[in-house]
């Protein structure tokens, strides 16, 4: 091997060793600097945690956290109160609707009562009862039956939607109609949807009573198409019919009889004085 080549190899090896040494020294220096910085960071953290400012910051943070917790609690209470107020508003609204409905019912009952006692004409009283049953109760087929005290028979004197002759004459205590007249208790078919029209067994039978004396019954066989069930006001009207209608019928019949007798007596007197 030539002598010049050996020298070149030795020089490159020497340069490599120098570079390797510098790299090792630089690495060692980096490790030391890293260790120094870690120690410094740990020292700063200890100083920061132990300083009054750090403690003050921590106290303020705790106070803010507590305040946030209090505000969250107040928010929950306010939301619960709002929910309660909304429930109360719903109750008030429902109560308002009920009161308005009751006022309407009272107005209807007042009108019906006033109409019943506004005349002593027997046919007119019957017509008023028919209008009440149609317009306020919503019945389509029904009849008004009165009791003949001499024969104890119930016979229709007015009807709507059915022929009066088709309404059966019933003895006191016979069937549903006669039983209602005898007991004085209202009768309602158990299920309106299952009811099929039967002249001997109406869907509703209301006694017309003066105190405890029954003078007749109102029998209902069919309701208007839009009438699917009875409302509370209907039962109030049934109660009114049981009393006021009976009184109006009784008074008008008594007045008609008195008028007829008076006319008879007047006619007899006219014959005597001629």
Walk me through the structure.
This is GAF domain-containing protein. InterPro entries: GAF, GAF-like_dom_sf. It comes from Geoanaerobacter pelophilus. By secondary structure, the protein is an alpha+beta fold. It has five helices and six strands; from the N terminus they run αααβββαβββα. α2 runs antiparallel to α3, α2 runs parallel beside α5 and α3 packs antiparallel against α5. It is rod-shaped and about 185 Å long. The relative contact order is 0.08.
Compose a concise summary of this entry.
By secondary structure, the chain is an alpha+beta fold. Helices cover 66% and strands 15% of the residues. The protein has a 6-stranded antiparallel sheet with strand order 3-2-1-6-5-4, sandwiched between helices.
Features:
single chain, 5 helices, 15% strand, 6-stranded antiparallel sheet, alpha+beta, 274 residues
Which helices and strands, and how do they pair?
Layout: H1 3-50, H2 52-116, H3 122-137, E1 139-148, E2 153-160, E3 170-171, H4 175-183, E4 187-188, E5 204-210, E6 213-223, H5 232-273
Antiparallel strand pairs: 1-2, 1-6, 2-3, 4-5, 5-6
Distance between the termini: 188 Å
Radius of gyration: 52 Å
Which segments are poorly predicted (pLDDT under 50) over 5 or more consecutive residues?
none
Largest sheet: 6 strands, antiparallel
Number of helices: 5
The side-by-side strand order for the widest beta sheet comes to: 3-2-1-6-5-4
Proportion of beta-strand residues: 5-15%
**What is the H/E string?**
HHHEEEHEEEH
Number of strands: 6
Q: What best-fitting shape do the alpha-carbon axes yield?
A: rod-shaped
Q: Specify the helix fraction band.
A: 55-70%
Structural class: alpha+beta
On the 0 to 100 scale, the average pLDDT is 85
Domain GAF: 121-259
Keywords: Coiled coil
Coiled coil: 61-102
Organism: Geoanaerobacter pelophilus
């Amino acid at each position: 091997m030539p002598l010049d080549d050996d020298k070149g190899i030795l020089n490159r090896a020497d340069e490599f060793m120098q570079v390797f040494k510098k790299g090792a020294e630089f690495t060692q220096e980096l490790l030391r600097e890293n260790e120094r910085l870690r120690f410094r960071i740990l020292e700063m953290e200890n100083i920061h945690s132990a300083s009054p400012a750090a403690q003050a910051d921590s106290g303020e943070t705790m106070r803010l956290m507590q305040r946030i917790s209090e505000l969250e609690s107040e928010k929950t209470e306010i939301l619960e109160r709002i929910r309660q107020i909304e429930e109360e508003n719903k109750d008030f609204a429902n109560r308002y609707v009920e009161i308005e409905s009751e006022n309407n019912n009272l107005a209807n009952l007042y009108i019906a009562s006033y109409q019943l006692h506004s005349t002593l004409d027997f046919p007119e009283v019957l017509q008023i009862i028919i209008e009440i049953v149609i317009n306020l109760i919503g019945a389509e087929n029904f009849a008004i039956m009165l009791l003949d005290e001499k024969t104890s028979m119930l016979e229709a004197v007015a009807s709507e939607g059915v022929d009066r002759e088709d309404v059966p004459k019933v003895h006191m205590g016979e069937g549903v109609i006669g039983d209602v007249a005898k007991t004085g208790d209202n009768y309602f078919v158990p299920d309106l949807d299952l009811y099929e029209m039967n002249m001997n067994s109406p869907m509703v039978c209301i006694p017309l009573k003066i105190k405890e004396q029954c003078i007749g019954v109102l029998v209902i066989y069919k309701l208007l198409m839009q009438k699917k069930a009875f409302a509370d006001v209907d039962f109030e009207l049934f109660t009114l019919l049981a009393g006021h209608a009976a009184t109006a019928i009784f008074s008008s019949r008594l007045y008609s009889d008195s008028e007829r007798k008076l006319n008879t007596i007047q006619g007899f007197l006219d014959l005597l004085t001629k």
